[in-house]
Write a structure and sequence with these properties.
Length: 83
Amino acid sequence: MEQVLSCQSAPIACGAEQLDGQIVFVDGVLVAVLTQLSGEHYGSHDGHWFLEAGFGRCDPTGTKLPPFASLNEAVAWIRSAIA
């Protein structure tokens, strides 16, 4: 049976600033928190998406993933992680 992946927009506190974020669920269970990097201090990663937290099969187990170029790319990684 295919698992249902859904995203919900949520602002994420990041130090003194607030970033756009997505909380990601699979079959209603939280599996990931993503933030969209915004600001000149992110350089070439400005606008990219970063996995702030992954749970269960979306936990990168100590590996720091590079930012994803788009939300679609991040969601594709999550789909592959839960497969």
